[in-house]
Amino acid sequence: MLLLLEDIKVKRKPIYHIRIKATILTENMTRIVIAIGGNAILNPVKGNPEEAKQKIDETCREIAGIIDKGYDVVLTHGNGPQIGNILAMQEECGLVHPQPLDVCGAQTQGMLGYSLQQSLDNRLKRRRMDRKVITVLTQVVVDDSGSSFENPTKPIGLYYQEYRAQEMIALGTRMVKDKNGYRRVVPSPEPVQIVEDEAIKKLVSEGFTVIAAGGGGIPVIRKNGLLTGVEAVIDKDLTGSLLAASVGAELFLILTDVDKVSLNYGEDNQLELDEMTVLEAGRYIKEGHFGKGSMEPKVRSGINFVNSGGRYAIISSLEKALPALEGTAGTRIIR
Ligand code: ADP
Ligand code: MG
Fold first, then answer.
1. Could you tell me the sign of the dihedral formed by the alpha carbons of 224, 226, 230, 233, in that order?
2. What is the pTM of this model?
């Protein structure tokens, strides 16, 4: 027993040493905002809790590796599959009153924030790194001036068969049809401001690894200076670029399920890109190279970030995250 305690003492670094390391290093570290897709956390719809836990752990292993390389990480995440599951439970159960989308979004920030925070904390502990992880419940003010609320465009949740879709439409739900069936569509307005940005910035500068603005943030608007939630979802990559600018990040890394961004995606002449300038990226968007609700907002977010003073943005996959940061993988969006 005594021997075991000695063993632990020898292995552990003295606390004061670790504290110094944490404060000194953050100043010299490259600050980076990393956005991970909801699908990197859970397979759509069916993913069971064990599977989700394992996926989150794999994700956090990579993130801890990035922190260990000297990056000061702020993490944000998607919530598509998770919010879809909450809606499915509400719709199919019939016993409880469905909650509005802002409340559903807040739920996903809580459940994913908890899981990521615990898992990342454990991964950092295994590396004997003394960094504290904290999740901030984050509201994001959205732009309600345009037509995004009258003409909802973002499909979310389950696919429904015709008869069920007709019932839902009769009850006032907006639905769109694609090749897989009917899906609910909701507004996806532009994010304008992160309500908790001051608190996030303080935590980051104190050396915390912060998880924030999950699922693109809880959508809110300001009425006479007061906040109120709205029935919408926000693109997590667009909010990610806002977060990156507001914490003064040098880099913005978007991790999804493709290693690189392509031109002529899915065609015979598909071309994977190593790099594009913001001007080129804007032109490619106009030419329609990127999926509307998938790759296009990522590229737009990269452009936004660089235009707001960021050094460059990278789009790649979780598996290629470190090589992408070292410049040997992924697609960079530069000035
Ligand atoms: P996430 O859940 O990580 O946000 P999305 O599914 O929204 O991921 O976006 C990533 C997807 O974008 C890829 O799986 C790919 O199928 C699609 N995509 C659309 N256009 C392109 C493109 N031009 N290059 C690469 N991937 C593209
Ligand atoms: Mg997406």
1. positive
2. 0.91
